[in-house]
Specification:
The structure holds two protein chains of two kinds. Chain A is α/β, with parallel strands linked by helices. In chain A, 31% of the residues lie in helices and 21% in strands. In chain A, helix 1 crosses helix 2. Chain B has a five-stranded parallel β-sheet with strand order 7-6-5-8-9, sandwiched between helices. A four-stranded parallel β-sheet of chain B has the order 2-1-3-4, sandwiched between helices. The radius of gyration of chain B is 19 Å and the shape is globular. The chains are: A alpha/beta, B alpha/beta. The structure holds zinc ion. Zinc ion binds next to loops of chain A.
């Protein structure tokens, strides 16, 4: 029986309270974990991966990515997106339905599953639309979407501004055991704005939108979820006020969850000063106090998990005038490095919470499989080198897109291998040309 | 001082010394305008291209004439009837024009930052002739030039900018330039047309009480309501606007004796400014237009001149 031994790593899984140097034995036929323990004896002929000095975690999940297929394959495909995922340390991703045509019917969902299987890299779980054609007017066939395997419902990229429709979707989703997932933006108030409303937008003469446009919908959806007795998930939370609303609601027992993107924890609207479209996304980069609030929310559990909102666009699209370029930045291949460097290594975020927010907590939000290391469970594993020094060079990305706000950043810590069902993919840390020690000795 | 810039993208990034350099250079060019032969050979053989994505006869004519007085050749591309209207990107359009061997782009565009984007993709000089609601540096400079000429100084003066601040690139450029030269700047208008964070963003004061502002101002710069940018959605109606926020003779009775009235044009007569005031003794509106020519000559001369060139050459060596 083909077997793989992950040898001598620091096995780290907050959900199983694991933090010890151990081996993991993987049955490659079934793609499951056969054993976790010290000095495991592999059967003869077993493959071995030396994990000394590496952190061996459950496979990371990014529950908010845009893979653009069908419809926008110049930006990304399911194959290129899946390659970016495993290269960035992610064994599982959840794709958003704002494709062309949108994922508002069961065959569209089946198509993404098929493409993902053909690609054979990350596990890809699509979300279905809340409304037909993402037009915000009629409910999509939520029951059939769920039956086809949609793991949640969202019109992401747009908010469902009709309270009636959101209520209906919540009631439907409750019966289906699914979550309604909202891009929270009062479009009437944001009114086509392309950045955060504040000092920077005022100086640049750019139409900005206030945090209130997000907060209004967060507040509304919490109310509607209570009314329907259903679960609501807040995507890419960005505003201080939204964090407070979710915190208060959770205290009162509301069934609400939230995710935050790395760029909303690390970058502010000041980045837009040079009109660089690689800092343009929706929700927009906000102010330092919003970043602080998001981090606080992450620390106290108000915010459940990370999610990148990986939103690929072509270089041509992103090198237009700031107000004209499409919203979004990519994140799959920088998520881990930027957060390790700027939150974990700076002691702002415990390693345990960092791993949890990419694994068990992310899986829990959408009831996805995975997120923990268990004997008998899937051999989805993310292996990190916490000390690897590297520099972000978008030319090395597996994603088709280069719209990365962290280009040129010098980082410490990277994924080196991603395992999906026991299959090993080298991650960005392993494809570095210069080993860690040489690099640090040579740089400056 | 030695001028080192190849582009004029905004006044926010200019130093006080650089602004003064432009104003002083403009003053010497103004003298040229008074001669019978109004040309100097400073930019002979150089090509200046007007790239206008928003209609504007006034500013494009002013730049074209300024270039001609410096003996440069001029070309103009407007958004209608060219490749621009056929969906070509700004960068592609500019690169195609650049390939003909031009030296400077004077660009007007509805998108804030379009000149900054262009400057990153071209070897030519880029002069911002107005980018959306962001900046209009030569208008700011000519306004400051006019104030300095009429009132003898800038530092210590109180300059009020009135009206549609939200949509005004003129207000932003004026505020940056005036602040650097030591003036006190008050932005005044209806609350909805003054963005909430603008005082902090520009280091200026904000008021919604026009009468109080008129009493304090040495110069009153009235802005046009930008109906083309849907400014009408931000206030209840023009009658109400004229009554509460417009400048009229009655209101001007409170003004300081020597206070001047300015307007970047074109005027919505009877809304932000009454015809009597626009054409009255305090008005310096036509002087603003003639000063615009001198200021634009100075800007083209400095950015395309020998000093700027040697800097560009130096940059290439360093890169
Ligand atoms: Zn979204």
């Amino acid at each position: 029986m083909p077997t793989l031994l992950l040898k001598n790593g620091r096995v780290f899984d907050p959900s199983s309270k694991l933090d010890k140097t151990a081996d993991i034995l993987i049955d490659l036929q079934s793609g499951t974990i056969e054993g976790i323990g010290k000095n495991l004896k592999p059967p003869p002929g077993a493959e071995m991966l030396d994990c000394s000095d590496l952190l061996v975690c459950p496979g990371f999940l990014d529950i908010h990515v845009h893979f653009r297929e069908p419809g926008f394959t110049a930006k990304e495909t399911i194959a290129s997106g899946s390659a970016a995922a495993v290269h960035g340390g992610f064994s599982t991703v959840v794709t958003m339905p704002n494709t062309d045509p949108p994922l508002d019917n069961s065959s569209a969902i089946a198509y993404q599953y098929l493409k993902a299987e053909q690609a054979g890299m990350a596990r890809v779980f699509p979300m279905g639309c809340i409304t037909k054609g993402r037009a915000g007017e009629e409910l999509a066939a939520l029951g059939l979407l769920a039956r086809a395997g949609a793991v949640g419902f969202t019109d992401d990229g747009a908010c469902v501004n009709s309270s009636f429709l959101v209520r209906s979707a919540l009631e439907y989703a409750r019966a289906l055991g699914k979550v309604v997932v909202e891009h929270c933006e009062d479009h009437d108030l944001s009114n086509g704005a392309v950045m955060h409303e504040g000092k920077v937008s005022a100086a640049l003469g750019i139409n900005g939108y206030p945090s209130a446009a997000e907060e209004i919908i967060v507040a509304r959806d919490i109310r509607l979820a209570k009314l329907a007795g259903a679960r609501i998930h807040v995507q890419h939370i960005s505003a201080k006020g939204s964090v407070s609303l979710v915190r208060e609601a959770k205290k009162k027992g509301a069934k609400v969850s939230a995710e935050v993107a790395p760029h909303h924890l690390l970058l502010t609207d000041e980045c837009c000063r040079d009109f660089d479209a690689n800092y343009k996304m929706n929700p927009p980069l906000r102010e330092p106090s919003d970043l602080d609030a998001c981090l606080e929310g992450l620390l106290d559990g108000t915010i459940d998990c990370f999610a990148s909102d990986h939103a690929p666009h072509t270089t041509e699209e992103k090198s237009q005038e700031f107000v004209e370029t499409p919203n979004g930045v990519i994140g799959l291949e920088t998520n881990i490095g930027v957060l390790l460097t700027h939150l974990v290594h700076k002691n702002k975020l415990p390693l345990k919470r960092f791993v949890d927010a990419w694994t068990a907590s992310a899986a829990r939000v959408l009831d996805l499989p995975g997120g923990s290391l268990k004997v008998g469970g899937p051999a989805d594993v993310t292996i990190l080198d916490l000390d690897l020094r590297w520099q972000v060079d978008p030319a090395r990305f597996k994603s088709k897109a280069r719209n990365c706000p962290f280009a040129g950043w010098k980082l410490k810590g990277a994924p080196v291998y991603t395992l999906v069902g026991g299959k090993v993919f080298p991650a960005i840390g392993a494809t570095m040309k210069v080993p860690a020690k040489q690099k640090s000795a040579r740089s400056r | 001082m030695a001028w080192t810039r190849k582009h004029l993208l905004d006044l926010e990034s200019l130093s006080k010394a650089e602004i003064v350099e432009i104003l002083d250079t403009a003053a010497s060019f103004k003298e040229v305008s008074g001669r019978s032969v109004k040309k100097v050979p400073a930019l002979r053989g150089r090509v200046v291209v007007n790239l206008f994505y928003e209609a504007s006869t006034r500013t494009s004519n002013s730049f074209a004439l300024a270039a001609k007085r410096l003996s440069a050749d001029t070309m103009s591309f407007s958004s209608s009837g060219s490749s621009v209207s056929k969906g070509e990107t700004l960068i592609d359009t500019a690169k195609n024009i650049e390939a003909m061997g031009v030296d400077a782009f004077v660009i007007r565009h509805s998108a804030p930052g379009a000149p900054h984007l262009l400057a990153r993709h071209t070897q030519c000089s880029v002069i911002n002739a107005g980018d959306g609601c962001h900046e209009h540096p030569t208008q700011g400079l000519l306004d400051i030039f006019t104030i300095r000429e009429k009132l003898g100084k800038v530092a210590g003066l109180t300059v009020a900018i009135l009206g549609d601040i939200r949509h005004s690139r003129v207000a932003r450029s004026n505020a940056h330039g005036l602040r650097k030269l030591g003036a006190r700047v008050i932005l005044a208008g209806p609350p909805t047309l003054v963005p909430p964070a603008i005082a902090a963003a520009l280091g200026v004061e904000v008021s919604h009480d026009i009468d109080a502002v008129v009493e304090q101002a040495d110069a009153l710069n009235c802005l046009r309501i930008q109906f083309e940018r849907k400014a009408g959605r931000f206030f209840p109606g023009v009658r109400e606007y004229a009554a509460i926020y417009g400048l009229n003779e009655d209101r001007m009775k409170r003004a300081k004796p020597g206070a001047i009235i300015m307007h970047p044009g074109p005027i919505n007569r009877g809304i932000e400014l009454t015809p009597e005031l626009a054409d009255g003794d305090r008005s310096v509106i036509l002087q603003q237009v003639s000063n615009g020519l001198a200021v634009r000559m100075a800007v083209l001369y400095l950015c395309m001149g020998v000093g700027a060139q040697s800097v560009a050459a130096r940059e290439e060596v360093e890169a």
